[in-house]
Amino acid sequence: MVKKKVLLLLVLACVVLWPVVTLGADENAVKDLFAQAQAHLNDDNDDENEERWIAAGDIYRQIAAADVGGDDGLKAQERIIWLYTRHEKPTQAREAYEYLMANFSENENLAAALENELISAFRDSGDYDTALEMYEYLMARGADDQKMLGISSGIVKCYIGLGYDANATAEVEQMLSRYANNERLPDVVFDLAYECRSQKRWEKSREFFEYFVSNWPDNKKAMVAQRYVVKASIKLGDDAAADTQINNLIAAYANNPDIGNEVSQLAEDYAQNGNHEKAASLYGQVAQRWPQSEWAPLAQCQSARMYIEIGDYTKAAEAVEKLKKELSTSPGIVEALEDVGDKYELNYSSREAYDIYKYILQNWPTHDHAITIQMKAILSQIRLRDLDKANTELSNLLNDFASNEDLAPMVHEVVEEYRDAGYNEEGRTLFKYLLENWTQDEATNLELQVGLALQSIKLKDEENAKSAIDRLIADYNDHPNIAKGLFQIGEEYFYAEKYNEASALWELLETDYPSIKFKTRDEILYVLGVCYQRMGKYDTSIEYYQEFIQKHPNHRFMADAPYVVGMIYYRHKKDYEKALYWLDYQVKFHPKKLGQNALFNQCVIYTHNIQEYNKGIEVCGQCVRDYPEGQRLWGCLSNLALCYERIGNIEKAKETLQKAYKVSSSENLRNHVSERISRLEAGGAQ
After folding, report:
1. How far is CA 382 from CA 350, 389, 414, in A?
2. Interval 494-507: pLDDT, tens
3. What is the mean pLDDT of residues 256-269?
4. Would 664 be classed as within a structural domain?
5. At what angle do helices 313-326 and 276-289 cross, to 10 degrees?
6. Which CATH number does the domain housing residue 665 bear?
7. Which of 114, 528, 632, 677 is a Cys-bridge partner for 600, taking CB atoms 3.0 to 4.6 Å apart?
8. Separation of alpha carbons 673 and 686, rounded Å
9. How far apart are CA 206 and CA 445, in angstroms?
């Protein structure tokens, strides 16, 4: 085993070192290395797994070290810094930056590298000191006015982030004076104001936005800027100023078609602050002042939703009545009422939701949303457990919208609601009805047949479930969605604890449909392992898990697959050597999820099962060091003490038990540890 590991390390070393040796001579080697690094990053969709981006960083370091001062080296070092800032490694990011400035300062592309991505990477990560250094470096180099304005703005942002308000004010004054005639200045000031807003520096934000409105009142962003002035005052608790600023906003932009939206957003700010009375007043102003605007029904809708949210159903009902009576001709009235109905549903008020849906259907029966609203009316009655009314509304759906191309998806929603509510027979009946009465495209019919099988499984109707599956295979064997449908049916069997049936379907996918791809295709081997594990067929389970590990090393289930195999060998096969191998595999390659548990179980095996106490000391010690606050800490310390005791190191055993006493989570554990310490002091053995 040791020889194999040494050989593997030598092979890996050759693979890693060869490109470094040949970089200078082979331009293609550099391109290949960049491609290798990018391939690691393309797979890095799991922030819990550092291995891939660290591997990419190692490749970039090879390039940077082999091309110090050069363009490829600069690009590689830039990527290293980006990786460290993205993955929140500030110390390493700073060190990589210092290496960049020390070794690439003569490269003519350094300034562009800083401007393009690196400054914002440091600033966005909160390292304003380093970002400020970069801006000052660029400022000292000089540039045209457009770039210098951007650099000056960046310096202000860093000062604000660092809390250096006096420096920020001085830099702003210089910037406003120096670039007064620059056409980009309004955008820069707005951006600075927004930066302060993002950092919750409300006083500074208000100051910048007020400057913007005062100096560029006709700018297309001026109305938004004035709203942000109000928002800052709300955040500062300056209600008097906010009232004055709202009046200024409405007076200055009353004829702007989007003024209703701006006032409504301020109403939402007040609502979020708990000032519901002020919010309702502003929503009311929008509905009253601009009743034919698209914002009027939306504002009244938001007022109703606000009252529903806080449980004031009386005022919510008043807001709904106002929608119905005063804004019935406003554009978007149907959508606004529907939205209120949906909010009632979200708050488990299906009766009120149903009443609104019925009102819409009675008054706007031909609206584009009518079929969706009819479907929602059915769902409301199902949730109210009134199957008679649900069936009546279902008949309305089937009769009134028989020719509507969206009818099938609407019925699907009803079926799902029946199923979620436990009415599986009603759901199955609907599936049958659709299959027998509507001519759908083949993909839809396949989906309906899958649904029929799912409902039969839920009803524990094995005969009809099998019949539905047989028909599915017979009618759609060549359809590209057949594999996905069979996988779904296997899942339903799995959740019903029908592991034989689930495994049979998933094995059928492996043998009869191996080339058909779908989203969960790569999970099949893993879930087969789970099935056979739950059936107690451990040899077959291990075979599937190991095949999964071999074929899908980057799958998210790899985070626990090695651990599961190790525990099967440990608990069920009593094969301690193989158990240790797979638990060690978990620790080395996937330590974050189950690494602590894997180490702990290795401790137990070495201590209690094979009595290799020196190895137990090594593994238990690693567990204590790597997981000093982990849930397995007490157990690792207890086993570590026992290992010391077994090799005759009583002092170390007592010292370790004292540590275990300090982290004991219960009186029973503390008593147990105290008894062991007393026994050791008395010269006894466990």
Report:
1. 9, 8, 9
2. 999 999 999 999 99
3. 95
4. yes
5. 10
6. 1.25.40.10
7. 632
8. 12
9. 59
Is 424 within a domain?
Answer: no
Q: What is the distance between the alpha carbons of residues 596 and 631, in angstroms, rounded to a whole number?
A: 8
Q: Which amino acid is at 241?
A: A
Which tokens in the block code for residue 72? 């490829």
Is-contact 548 555, C-beta < 8 A?
A: yes
CA-to-CA distance for 448 and 435, rounded, in angstroms? 7
pLDDT reported for residue 432:
81
Question: Do 187 and 222 contact (CB within 8 A), yes or no?
Answer: no
What count of residues does the chain have?
686
Separation CA 627–CA 380 (nearest Å)? 50
Residue 19 has a pLDDT of 41
CA-nearest of 254, 197, 259, 195 to 224 is 259
Q: How far apart are CA 317 and CA 323, in angstroms?
A: 10
Contact 255, 264 (CB under 8 A): no
**Ranges 114-118, 124-128, 236-240, 337-341: which has the least confidence:** 114-118
> Which run of H or E residues covers position 201?
none
In this structure, which amino acid lies at residue 460? Answer: K
Q: What's the CA gap between 160 and 165, in Å, rounded?
A: 6
Q: Domain containing 637: what range?
A: 560-686
Least-confidence region, from 85-94, 262-271, 385-394, 595-604: 85-94
CA 267, distance to chain mean position in Å, is 30
* Token duo for residue 546: 């190991």
Q: Give the pLDDT of residue 43.
A: 58
Closest CA to 165 of 136, 211, 199: 199
Q: Which secondary-structure segment (H or E) carries 217?
A: none
Residues 219, 183: contact at Cβ < 8 Å? no
**Alpha helices for 364-481 (secondary structure H):** 370-383, 387-400, 407-420, 424-437, 442-458, 462-476
Q: What is the mean pLDDT of the chain?
A: 90
Q: Which residues contact 453 (CB under 8 A, 6 or more apart)?
A: 465, 468, 469, 472, 489, 492
- Number of independent structural domains in the chain: 2
**374-392: average pLDDT:** 96
Q: How far apart are CA 514 and CA 506, in angstroms?
A: 11
Separation of alpha carbons 65 and 58, rounded Å:
11
Answer for the pair 447, 485: CB distance below 8 angstroms, yes or no. Answer: yes
> Which one of 118, 145, 171 terminates a domain?
118
* Residue 127, amino acid: D
Domain endpoint, select from 77, 93, 118 = 118
Following DSSP, what letter does each residue of 220-287 receive, concatenated? TTHHHHHHHHHHHHHHHT-HHHHHHHHHHHHHHHTTSTTHHHHHHHHHHHHHHTT-HHHHHHHHHHHH
For residue 455, being part of any structural domain is answered with no
- List CB contacts of 654: < 8 A, sequence separation 6 or more: 641, 677, 680, 681
- pLDDT tens for each residue of 264-289: 999 999 999 999 999 999 999 999 99
- 530: tokens are 């789970």
d(CA 107, CA 96): 16
